[in-house]
Each structure stands twice: as C-alpha cells, then as structure tokens.
Design a protein that fits this description.
Strands 1-2-3-5-7 form a five-stranded mixed sheet, with helices on both faces. Strands 4-6-8-9 form a four-stranded mixed sheet. The protein is built from twelve helices and nine strands. The protein has 259 residues and is an alpha/beta fold. The protein has two domains: 192 residues, 2-enoyl-CoA Hydratase, Chain A, domain 1 (Alpha-Beta Complex), CATH 3.90.226; 56 residues, no CATH class.
C-alpha cells in the first residue's frame, strides 16, 4: 500500500468523506498515515468543491492511535511534513467524525479535533497516555474536559479505562449511536442539512463556535458582536421573507415526521 492509499477521499453534494485506510493495522497513525492526513486536509482547505468534511476509518476502527510498532523502532522522533493538529483544526469547514470503532489515545485526539461526533454500538474511546508514559500533544487534556467535564475527563485520562458507546453518548462525547450501515448516510444527511442554510453565515457561525473554544466567554461574545455587525449577507426584506417561509415549512415537516 502506497502513502496515497492510506487516506481515501470521495466527494458527493459538496461533502467530502475522508477514510483512514489501514484496516489491517486498525488505522494506526504511522508517519505515512499522518503525512497523508496532513496532505489531505491541506488540499481540502482550499478545495472549492468541499464545504463539509466527514472523517471515518476503514474496517472496525476509527484509529487505534499512534503506530506503536513503528514507535518501538524509531521512538518519538517527529518526521511528519507539518503539524497535524494545526492542519486539521484550521481546515475552516465543518468536520463530522463518524467514529465507526476504536478511537484510542492519538486516535481519540484526532476524533476530538472534529466538530461533531457520531458513533455506532462498536464505538470505543480510551486515553492511554498515562499508561504509556506520554503526555498528550494534540489537545486531548484541554478538549476532553471542555466537552465532557473535568471529573469525567480526569477519570478517562488518569485510569486509561475504555468508554463504550452508550456511556459516550450519555456523557455528550457523541451525539448519536447508529447501526454501522447507517453511520455514513446519517453523517451525509447531517452535512447536507448544514448546506441548506446560507453558506457565508454557516462559515461564520462555525468559525465563532471554534473561536469560543480557545477564548474566554467575554472574548467570544465580543467577537460575535463584531461579526454580527460586519457580516455581509443578503438581508433584503424579500430574501428574509423567503427564508422565513422555508424555515417554517421545514420545521413543520420535522414535527410531522416525529409525530
């Protein structure tokens, strides 16, 4: 398998699905795999045919984390072509994590770089950094506590215990649990629902929520006010009325579907 085969891309309706493709190794993050992810996300950042990204894994794992076999041979010498965390988190487009199986340690960190996480009954999370004697370097110690709370994050990171899909959903780590066959179709539908809104506003609200992760509440509110004042959108009365009717009609359809 060449490096070009380690990460696969398919695009449909302006939604690109990125698949980590080392199923025989549980999609472990070898140097080649990390470089392929960096190359892929650098391309997606500037890809005008992609507005939303879905990230998943081939086989029974999202990714089991760093390639321990490789680390046993070369150690932690960094040989990647860029900063994976920086490239993934700065892609500038909504990123949905379709967590189809194991997301362990470095793989857990990659999952936490996503904006939305969806799982299956086979989804499992674990942070084994402490057991490996390695301090996280891709943001896990900060993002996990912000997502599920300090107490639960402490439990996961200090024990290294695995968390199953039901617990992950209850803790707010994943939004839904879907049968494996429905995972990617659900994520695709979620992405297409995002794209039904105003594109410029989608980009700006996505940026603002991301901004809030790295700043205080006061700074986030201030940035939101600034963005609201300067946002360049079509606010003509006839446009707003057309959108209002569409929003009402969509709401009625969703209520009828739930009835």
């Amino acid at each position: 398998m060449t490096d070009n085969d380690l990460v696969l891309r398919t695009t449909h309706q302006r939604v690109t699905t990125v698949t980590l493709n080392r199923p025989e190794a549980l999609n472990a993050l070898s140097t080649g795999m990390k470089n392929a992810i960096i190359t892929c996300f650098e391309a997606l950042r500037d890809d005008h045919d992609t507005d939303v990204i879905i990230l998943t894994g081939a086989g029974r794992s999202f990714t089991a984390g760093l390639d321990l076999k490789e680390l046993g041979q070369i150690g932690f010498t960094e040989r990647t072509i860029g900063d994976l965390q920086e490239v993934v988190t700065s892609v500038g487009k909504p990123l949905i994590g379709a967590i189809n199986g194991f997301a362990i340690t470095g793989g857990f960190e990659l999952a936490l770089m996503c904006d939305i996480l969806v799982g299956t009954p086979d989804t499992r999370f674990a942070d084994t950094h402490v057991r490996m004697g390695v301090v996280p370097g891709w943001g896990l110690s900060q993002r996990l506590a912000a997502l599920i709370g300090r107490s639960r994050a402490m439990e996961m990171s200090l024990t290294g215990n695995y968390v199953d899909a039901e617990t992950a959903e209850r803790w707010g780590l994943i939004n839904n649990i879907l049968p494996p066959s429905e995972l990617l179709p659900h994520c695709q539908a979620l992405a297409e629902a995002m794209l039904a809104g105003d594109h410029k506003t989608l980009e700006e609200v996505h940026r603002l929520i991301r901004y809030g992760q790295d700043h205080t509440l006061a700074e986030g509110i201030s940035e939101e006010r600034r963005a609201s004042r300067t946002h360049e959108g079509d606010k003509r009365p006839e446009t707003l009325e057309s959108r209002r009717l569409k929003v009402i009609d969509r709401g009625r359809q969703q209520i009828d579907a739930d009835a």
